[in-house]
Amino acid sequence: MGKAIAFVVVLISAVLIIIAAKTLFLGPNSVPTPTAPIERAKATQCLNNIRNLRGSVNLYSAEKAGLPNQLEDLEGASPFCPVTNAHYVYDNSTGKVSCPAHPRY
Question: Considering the entire predicted model, what is its pTM?
Answer without folding.
Answer: 0.63
